[in-house]
Amino acid sequence: MDQPARNWAGHSRLTGYDDGGCGVSPRANPHSLVHCGMKPLVIIPPSPARWHSLLALVGHKGPLWLEDIEKRFVQGVPGSQDAFAVIANGGQFLAHACINKKAKIGILGNVHTRSDHRGRGYARLVIKAMLAWFDMVGGKWLYLGTTADLADGLFGKFGFKVIRRSPREPHDGITMLRTVADVGYDPLGRSDAAATTRPISRADWPLIVALLQHRAGPDPRLALDESAVSAELTALELISQHEQGTCHVMGTFCADRALGVGSVAADRIGQRTYAILMPHGTELPELREAITAHARSQGYTQVDFPMETLADGECPASPTPG
Ligand SMILES: CC(C)(COP(=O)(O)OP(=O)(O)OC[C@H]1O[C@@H](n2cnc3c(N)ncnc32)[C@H](O)[C@@H]1OP(=O)(O)O)[C@@H](O)C(=O)NCCC(=O)NCCS
Question: What is the Å distance from ligand 1's center to 5 Cα?
Fold first, then answer.
């Protein structure tokens, strides 16, 4: 059954805005009078009855993204806290953004406004509604992936700071982070909690993306900025393959943070399979052992780690922002 949609415009009071619920000061944006009547709805999934309205807006996304959005929106993902903000005109969605959250880490994504409704402040409205929700439910580290033009023109205005940048055409790929005042930039800092190694689930997506913003990916030839900018898709691909059973993915987690992720191919014919670990060269022997043990339990007698034979490329860390 659908969860009730909530009108989040009322939360402007919680976030200290005084904008009549439209998120943009009339003086700051000449279009504001056009959109002040439109209020974002925040939808907490599952919401199968509204799927067709959302699909009409985001149907252009690639298959891994669509699979993820549909699973979260229509069925709900156990263990994940997800919220979607939309500007709706009757049954038609004009703009959308969502946050996928686990523990205190979230990813803001799929910000989209219908092409014939752009320039009216709708993206601002849905982003603002999502940020109010994230802060209210205790989120601390909020990441997003975007392009350099939107990093400056849109997301920077909400307190997001660039953490990674990789060359792309026509605009560089960018990842950004927004934190609350009382936490550090890196959520993977030390903790006394015991680490556990277990199979990952779709709910872990934000934790894997966060890991790859601050630690190297599986391939030693790739700079950290490159693997960080590709992290959302890399993690979606791993999760999708894990769910299909073509690979088995495990993570080492400590107090709801991912410290490392390993994947072993489960569709190889014969005695031999291969695995990857991230960060590459990771000092997580329990993760390597768990991956190897899983492969053995599936009948493989040899597990290769081919990335470990590659030359170690430079993996410079970008400076801490702010
Ligand atoms: C990017 C997009 C969501 C903007 O939606 P929108 O409803 O037109 O945006 P808004 O009217 O709320 O604009 C908010 C701010 O973003 C800025 N902005 C919008 N599009 C921009 C662009 N392409 N480059 C730079 N700044 C941009 C606006 O100037 C505005 O700034 P202001 O508040 O200082 O006036 C929309 O163009 C879109 O859906 N594009 C395709 C999908 C996409 O690129 N999504 C982003 C994925 S990270």
Answer: 25
